[in-house]
Amino acid sequence: MLAKLRSIFSCTRGNFGVLTGLIMVPLIGSVGLAIDFGRALEAKSYLDAAADAAVLAAVSEKSAAVAKAMKMAEDGTVAIADTEAKKIFKSQLSARYGDNMEGLSSLLIDVKLELVKSDGVVTSRLKYAATLPTTFTRILGNDEMAISGQATAAYLIPSFLDFYMLLDNTPSMGVGATADDVAKLEAATKNGSDGKGKDANCAFACHIVSTSGVADKNSYYYLAKEVGATIRIDVVAEAVSALMTTAQETQTVSGQFKIGAYTFGQTSADAQLYTVSEPTSNFTSVAKATKMIELMSVPSHSSPNGQTDYNEILSKIGQKIKTVGDGSSSADRQPIVFLVADGVGDAYRSDCTKKLSSSNGDRCMEPLNASHCNALKARGIKVAVLYTTYLPLPKDGFYKKWIAPFQKEIPTQMQSCATEGYYFEVSPTDGISEAMDVLFRKIVGRVRLTS
């Protein structure tokens, strides 16, 4: 009996078949697992790509979510229904992998999309979880495989800005736009307005209009046109008009920018803030209005000056601005005062740092006082300054006596007036139009800090 048992256990015939039968189950299971795992990886790659596309679509410039966020006055969650989230995700999946959708149709997919507006940024976060039915690994008792992933995208809401273009058109802006233009004016006026030397060698194209409204066609204003000398205010007016094209090209959504234009007055008799155009997104109308800006008129060469009162003008423009936002939405617009000036104040008041002689009363010639700019900035209003360099006029007696002593202080005060990063000086050899364009683009291109 023992001998028979020993013979049975010592027999090796048929072992290969037995062993093969024993290892076939795990072998088939391993191959099946590799196949099912490969299918899961392929499905995940499709789903990940669809998730990326979905979050980008959710915060695209023309999306409903971004439109809602722009109208929100405060930060918070941007409402979107779960059905809408699934629709966005599946539409991206179908658009990208239509030929493979039959294989993906068996997936059970749960999608969660969250949209949040914070500090001017709309963030889209999508999470998905899916179950993929298995094929071969069922023999190992595994009927499905879990797949999950997430994607995030962010959209920086464009800044909504209201520009208040404050343009100095006082008599000092009648100076020649360049050194060549100054030379033309001085040469054309070498004999003076009376032919006997009165107001001779004048670099300023004074715009003479009588109190009854009759323009003096013999004034230096018309003489400048006759000799082809361009004056600074004309260049500024053309630059602002041309800027409207830049505004139209650079805004990313309709109504992002509104632009208004103001001068220091039409005549010296009523020198005060004058509205050329109220803030509007109709840039064509602003361009048309600003092209008509002229140098402030005076009744005669000898008429009293004192029309460049920066203190008063900055105070008045501040009164025009009723609400101050941070630009994060169309309901929370950021106001920007865009001052274009030569920086030399000329007004009658007693609180002057550079007062003229007593024979001129309280007429004050001094650089712009930046404290009035600071009052605007304290309210959250940003101030941009395009300083049109006050040209030295060594042949002009008035300049040598009253302006030259503080010439070097002018750019310092003008830069102090501006919000940090919002200052630009344009010299006589530079183009005012180009400089204005550069400063405008710099302002609208600045990114808000986000946490």
What tags apply to this protein structure?
451 residues, Rossmann fold, 2 domains, 14 helices, 14 strands, 39% helix, disordered C terminus
Count of the separate structural domains: 2
Low-confidence stretches: 447-451
Instruction: State the CATH superfamily name of the largest domain.
Output: von Willebrand factor, type A domain
Report Rg: 37 Å
**End-to-end gap:** 88 Å
Widest sheet: strand ordering: 8-7-5-10-13-14
| Strand segment count | 14
CATH class of the largest domain: Alpha Beta
Total helical segments: 14
**Sheet with most strands:** 6 strands, mixed
Q: Summarize the helix and strand pattern as letters.
A: HHHEHHEEEEHEHHEEHEHEEEHEHHEH
Class computed from helices, strands and strand pairing: alpha/beta
The CATH topology label of the largest domain is: Rossmann fold
User: Average pLDDT, to the nearest integer?
Assistant: 81
Q: Any guess at the CATH architecture of the largest domain?
A: 3-Layer(aba) Sandwich
Strand content: 15-25%
